[in-house]
Amino acid sequence: MNRVVVLGGYGAVGREVVAGLRGHVPEIVVAGRDPARARTVDGATPMRIDLRRDGAEGLDADAVVMCAETENVRVAEQCLRRGVHYVDVSASYPVLAEIEKLDGVAAGAGATAVLSVGLAPGVTNLLAREFGGADAEIGVLLGAGERHGPSAVRWTLDSLGDLGESWRMRFPPPYGTRTVHRFPFSDQYTLPGRVRTGLCLDSRALTAVLPRLRRFRRAAPLRAAFRHVHAGGDGFAVAVASGGRVRSFAGRRQSRATGLAAALVVRRLDGAPPGVRHIEDVAGPDFLPELAARGFALGEYDAG
After folding, report:
1. What's the whole-model pTM score?
2. Which uninterrupted H or E stretch holds 57?
3. Of 102, 161, 182, 187, which one has the fewest beta carbons inside 10 Å?
4. Is residue 61 located within the same domain as residue 114?
């Protein structure tokens, strides 16, 4: 792997992808519409690209990492048809489902696309795999104080329209047992068995009002508040429960965990089977321990 292009590489997740690739990939290119911001990313070459207008036809790369949530399906197809590996951190199932349809294109060109990369989906998929495909409940606890880019905020608020039933899950210390609301993370649709995924925030008060915010999710003041008001910390935890046991992964800065997970996937692309895969089809049993060694914590405990 000699040249990797990170689309949206100057955002919160993209910068962490670059940090995880630095020293392992000879040339890292940070691409986006704002070359001035791209130049602020250490150890990377800046490139201006407007995915809505330019696409990815002319990208010279061994692999492309999509952190921009813009034209994902078109960019994936353009990369895979030319034999360029593709890694996507999107949590949107409709997007991933369309990219899955490119399996034949990727296999024919000898390229690999890896989906469900990040924290949820991603780490959650790998924790669930340890239960052998059994029915599972997944809880995702995010820090309301962490700053996220406009794409992440837009997707989260749009997804409030699909908020479903609530249940209780036990997270690792210091969080304890919390109420989670069913949320449309893609892993509940792509993993085997009956799986449901719930969301909560580190702030119990904000978690309680999430269902009430559903009707206002498209209001500009609410979107501005989510972008600029940070009422919480930057800690996170994901917990996967099945058969009375829970496996967990926790730490600080969800964007860092997502970016480093994507970087580890890129570093495993050489030798990966061609076609469209999800992270659990590419990452071996050493993946989570290696990721956890970057300052995160793996855990296992009783669900009760």
Report:
1. 0.92
2. none
3. 161
4. yes
